Amino acid sequence: MSTFPNHTAPNNTSMAPTFLLVGMPGLSAVPSWWTIPLITIYLLSALGNSTILWVIALDSTLHRPMYFFLFLLSVSDVGLATALMPTLLGLAFAGVHAVPASACLLQMFFVHVFSVMESSVLLAMALDRALAICRPLHYPTLLTNDVVSKIGLAIAFRCLGLHLPLPFLLAHMPYCHPQVLTHSYCLHPDIVHLACPGAWSAVYSLFVVLSAMGLDPLLIFFSYGLIGRVLQGLGSSEDRWKAGQTCAAHLSAVLLFYVPMILLALIDRLQVPVPQPAHTLLSYVHFLLPPLINPILYSVKMKEIRERILKRLQPKKVACAQ
Question: Is 93 in contact with 35 (CB distance < 8 Å)?
């Protein structure tokens, strides 16, 4: 682990000009090699999600609620991976640990906006699957284009409305601890922990976390509980298999996004003695693996997406004039 200069004394109560980031433990002496997997992961996730966006945007037959939510999921994946890259690549290429407070707060804002957007879209997709399986006859009238548009606007308002005040609140909080963060990017729980005791902005930060990352997985798993009850009542195992297949990609994406996050929260809350490299790696898995794996999941599990991608990639036949 690198030794950081003591930019901020413990008794300081002002906003420091920089935050200090922690890189991957054990790699500070050789920062160059881990640029290769970082850049590879980012480029592959950008390529995969851009392909999903391209196919859905160009194919009018995919302009339906399920694919609209998948479109938003790909937007959030690309945004999240892009928001993380500046500090990750700065650490990997040049070992740059010091980040100006303004840049750190800006990164924090976008990381959490796209994280909450992903969580909100996963919740909307769970609602879509629950209605399609539990109320198939009413599904077309319940999820009309107008309703889906309103859900999209609600997701945007939720992400921006919850997080827009945070950078301004955190910029004016008094800080009493050395401003060394525990990750390779700026996260608001990290920054709040450095604030002086009694800083009221921490209460708002906790409300933001609980209102999204705490509520959404509960509602998603409640939706799947309803789906499970309906699947148990289906007559044949073949019908259950077909209905379950429509949820497979989404449920995999939900587990991929929430399981590392829940493990990190339990480790921090219960103070489990986990080695720092394992803790850091789990954090990378939570933020970087969903943008990489989600396009693969949906391309493999959803026949329509897979067929449209293959159709778009096939060279067009040109008829020869006689």
Answer: yes
Of 18-22, 38-42, 155-159, 210-214, which gets the smallest average pLDDT? 210-214
Residue with tokens 């990290």: 190
Query: At 202, is the secondary structure helix, strand, or coil?
Result: helix
In this structure, what DSSP letter does residue 236 have? S
Highest mean pLDDT among 86-95, 115-124, 252-261: 115-124
- With contact defined as beta carbons under 8 Å apart, do 220 and 128 qualify? no
Contact 288, 88 (CB under 8 A): no
Contact 117, 162 (CB under 8 A): no
| Structure-token match 């922690």, residue found | 22
- Is residue 321 over pLDDT 60? no
Residue where the block lists tokens 């054990």: 26
More confident residue, 276 or 227: 227
Which residue shows structure tokens 């409305």? 161
pLDDT of amino acid 251: 87
Q: What does the radius of gyration of the chain's CA atoms come to, in whole angstroms?
A: 22
- What pTM does this model have? 0.86
Closest Cα to residue 113, out of 147, 75, 139?
Answer: 75
Q: In 10 A of CB 145, how many CB atoms?
A: 11
Q: What would the DSSP string read from start to end of 131-178?
A: HHHHSTTTHHHHS-HHHHHHHHHHHHHHHHHHHTHHHHHHHTS-B-S-
Cα separation, 312 vs 299, whole angstroms: 13
The span from the CA of 122 to the CA of 130, in Å, is 12
The Cβ-side half-sphere exposure at 287, using a 13 Å CA radius, reads 28
Phi, psi at 19, each rounded to 5°: -110, 150
CA neighbor of 250 nearest in space, from 318, 305, 175, 197: 305
**258 CB-near residues (< 8 Å, 6+ apart):** 217, 220
Write down the pLDDT at residue 43.
92
Q: Would the pLDDT of 245 be above 80?
A: no
CA 46/CA 31 separation, integer angstroms = 23
Helix (H, G, I), strand (E, B) or coil at 22: coil
